[in-house]
Amino acid sequence: MSKIELAEITDLESVVKIINACATDLIRKNIFQWSEKYPSRDVFKNDIESNVLYVFKDNSKIIGCVALCSNKDIEYKNVKWLTEDNKNLYIHRLAVDPKFQKKGVGKSLMDFAEEYAKENDFNSIRLDTFSQNKRNNKFYKSRHYVQLCDVFFPMQSQFPFHCYEKIILKP
Description:
- The protein has 171 residues and is an alpha+beta fold.
- The chain has a single domain (2-167), classed as Gcn5-related N-acetyltransferase (GNAT) (Aminopeptidase).
- It has helices spanning 12-28, 41-49, 105-119, 134-142, and strands at 2-6, 53-58, 61-69, 88-96, 124-130, 146-151, 161-167.
- It has a 7-stranded mixed β-sheet with strand order 1-2-3-4-5-7-6.
- Strand 4, helix 3 (105-119) and strand 5 form a beta-alpha-beta unit.
- The model has no long low-confidence stretch (mean pLDDT 93).
């Protein structure tokens, strides 16, 4: 049985293993989006302590995660979003264990995020994804996210990250 629930501190090691497996898988595909520096164990520990990390469990085994945040990161300050900065949900660190990819887990996590946004009266969902990750970009476009400008994370990559937004509720 599958379910998505708020992560607990006891889930941290399982999440870190998934992230490391994802980073290795991406590098093997020549997608240098994640590294040994980001996202770090401390980032996920903070996500859990802040009650923003959700995990996808299949028969109690964690196989995916996503952070749902209401705070706007400083890197987004110059982005011309579709909606005003008021009650926006930011998606970060969506990951699925490579052994379980292409089985609908990422779709389920995004369905959950969009339903969460509706239930909590968010105006839109905002996110960024690595420009060199063609599969992710196709995935968000297929879900009707609008591609906006790019942001850069120099500590992660020389390549840009595309910003996306999807309006949930009309302001």
